[in-house]
Amino acid sequence: MNIGAAAKASGVSAKMIRYYEETGLIPPAARTDAGYRVYSEQDVHMLRFIRRARDLGFSVEGINELLGLWRDRSRQSADVKRLALAHVADLRRKIAELEEMAATLETLASACHGNARPDCPILSELEAPGEDAKRPAHASSARGLSRFGAA
Amino acid sequence: MNIGAAAKASGVSAKMIRYYEETGLIPPAARTDAGYRVYSEQDVHMLRFIRRARDLGFSVEGINELLGLWRDRSRQSADVKRLALAHVADLRRKIAELEEMAATLETLASACHGNARPDCPILSELEAPGEDAKRPAHASSARGLSRFGAA
DNA sequence: GATGGGGCTTACAATCATGGGAAGGTCAAG
DNA sequence: CTTGACCTTCCCATGATTGTAAGCCCCATC
User: CA-to-CA distance for A6 and B142, rounded, in angstroms?
Assistant: First the structure.
């Protein structure tokens, strides 16, 4: 099977299959005399595994660990579970951050008239966090907000 | 005020301030004879605005729109509100995707014994989605999963 | 006035996962 | 043998951010 067929069968793009090979996530594929990569059903199986893990939000690094356990016949299910639950915790942390953003914005938006006039508590809050929109506002204290890569 | 001081005062790194300038998010700063960028309190104000919007998860593109409205004295609060709520919708969509991942993984993990034996429904599911862990499993039908950049 | 340390400048690379495209070789059908 | 679909490698771009490196500037201290 060529890379295109493997891609279609696994749901992983040919581009990404080459990338995974290059970065060592998967072993180098066998080649034809012409240099074409050749994939077996087993390989497609592995690619589907990867695809599914990606769908569950695992990073390539995390998938690497999962693949290691997958291939390890003497693995302990406790290790798999630990990996999975650590990822769940990551997801929940990210969710909480996004949720906090959404809630903050929603609160601000609900206080915004949303009409033709320019005054808007959303902009006021962005200007001077925590201050009341009514007062002039000339904040300056240094803050230390959480920060995170904006998902 | 030099870029370092502006960075400290606004919470935006000097690196990012230059980047924002380069990409046109903020206008080019004034310069000293030696070429040092100079910032006013007004500039710091704007940088803080940007920082705060980033904290709320707005992309640079979204911040650009917010800044436009912020500077526009004749803006309509309805436009600001629309922008904010659209972003909230984005956040909620992302949250729902992450939540689904977390829930799926949690369900799988709860079915995993987490002991010293190798059998684990998490790996089974990654191998052959939807199939029961007990049966051999030799899936092959092409599926069309949702896919998204893994947040 | 020289020197040193810290801040500033630009430019370039790396990150992470992915897509896009060019230039060129290969394969199978007609 | 030609055509078109496929494959190869290599490079570029994304988005936001950080890191590094070479070189200049400013100020304080000796």
Answer: 11
Q: What is the domain-level CATH number for residue A45? A: 1.10.1660.10
CB contact under 8 A, A114 and B78: yes
Residues of A in contact with B98 (CB under 8 A): 57, 91, 94-95, 98
A92/B102 Cβ within 8 A: yes
- Say yes or no: B43 and B80 in one domain: no
Residue-range definition of the domain harbouring residue B117:
76-133
Residue A87 lies inside a defined structural domain of this protein: no
Distance in angstroms, CA of A60 to C1' of C17? 9
| Per-residue pLDDT tens over the stretch A123-149 | 999 988 766 544 444 333 333 333 333
Asked if A126 and B49 touch (Cβ cutoff 8 Å), the reply is yes
pLDDT band at B127 (very low <50, low <70, confident <90, very high): confident
Q: How many domains does chain B have?
A: 2
